[in-house]
Every structure is written in C-alpha cells, then in structure tokens.
Design brief:
single chain; 155 residues; alpha/beta; Rossmann fold; 2 domains; three-stranded parallel sheet; two-stranded antiparallel sheet; 6 helices; 9 strands; globular; Bact_iron-sidero_bind
Length: 155
C-alpha cells in the first residue's frame, strides 16, 4: 500500500514538474515573439520621393495601392486594398489577387474612408494630388511618372 502511495506521489510530482516547465517555456517564447513582432513593425527607413523624404516601415504588412497593382505584387507585396478595376486592364492579375484584398474604389475615385478602414502601414500612389489626403492616413510613397525608367526602381 505504501509503495502504491509513493508511486502515485512520484507520478503527480513528475506531471506537475512537466506542466510547470511547459508553462514557463511557452511564456518565454510568446514574450520573445511579441517583442520580435514589435521590433519588426516599428523599424523604418527613409525613402526619397517626389514629395520629399519620408519614413516608411522596413517591412510593410498592410499596403494600399491605387495604381500599378501588378508591379507592386511583383515586388512581393500583397496589398490589403486596391481598386479592383485595375484587374480589368490586366486579366492575368485576377487569379493572383487575394480574396481578402479590399476594393477601395476605382482609379481616380478612391474611397478615403475605405482606405482609412484598412489601417494601412504604407500607401503607394502615382497621384501627387492625393498625397496630402493619403499621408494623413499612413506613410505614402508617390512615384514619379515623369521619370519612368522602371516602376521596380521607383518602388
């Protein structure tokens, strides 16, 4: 009887010790992951644009674009918002566009309310006149269409 009791106590102690270790381990990883995510989201770099130098996220995660959707996607960015009418010009884009990409209107008549709802961390545009409105929402890159060597270079 005493042997059974000792076995039960040892088993409970081992299980308790394992639970304590796993709880401590998961907490440390979560804290490290949260700190790493915060560092990634707060790192910025300076970019020279036609509107002057601006600070943009080093790794933008929520990008809105109002033109040149294909070129932006070719750079590895999947925008959270874009005028879905842009796929009319490039039918090849339709299968590449995420179902989660929000339609922000049509080029030239973008809904600023919709852009604001998407909470972008970067906006890419060609429209210098829209810069003032966009830049109140998020850092905004305006690429110069008069110096049009390559969209890849500009972005």
């Amino acid at each position: 009887m005493l042997k059974k009791f000792n076995l039960v106590i040892k088993t409970i102690s081992i299980v308790g010790f394992i639970l304590v270790l796993s709880a401590c381990s998961n907490g440390a990883n979560t804290t490290e992951n949260q700190a790493e995510a915060k560092n990634n989201s707060t790192e910025t770099r300076k970019v020279s644009t036609v509107m002057g130098d601006i600070e943009v996220p080093d790794r933008p995660e929520r990008v809105v674009v109002d033109w040149h959707l294909g070129q932006v996607m070719a750079l590895g960015l999947m925008p959270v918002g874009a005028p879905l009418t842009l796929t009319d010009y490039g039918k090849f884009l339709e299968p590449l566009v995420s179902d989660e990409m929000a339609d922000i209107g049509s080029e030239g008549t973008v809904s600023m309310e919709k852009v604001l709802e998407l909470e972008p961390d970067l906006i890419i545009t060609w429209d210098q006149e829209a810069y003032e409105k966009y830049s109140k929402i998020a850092p905004t890159i305006v690429y110069d269409t008069t110096n049009y060597n390559s969209i890849h270079e500009e972005i």
